[in-house]
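Handout for the seminar on molecular recognition.
Each group receives one record of this type.
Step one: identify the two inputs.
Step two: read the structure output and locate the region that could contact iron/sulfur cluster.
Step three: write two sentences on what you found, then compare them with the reference statements printed after the record.
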Amino acid sequence: MSRVHIDWTACDGRGLCAELLPELLAEDEWGYPVARGDMNVPPALEPAARQAVDRCPALALKLVSARSA
Ligand code: SF4
């Protein structure tokens, strides 16, 4: 399973990822993403997660291997 990682130094808070992946991300009042849970991506959400990664204008999102910890 993969997990969404946000590079906070790159994110410019346009909120696109929260629109594309509302199951995992909410948007705060400034447009920055807020995790709704542990950011692990269930298989059914992999396509949406990949789309969010591909469309992030700041290249701030990536999918990493989820670690059980
Ligand atoms: S789409 Fe990218 S730049 Fe925009 S809020 Fe999400 S992580 Fe930040």
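Reference statements: The first helix runs from residue 16 to 20. The chain has one domain: 2-65.
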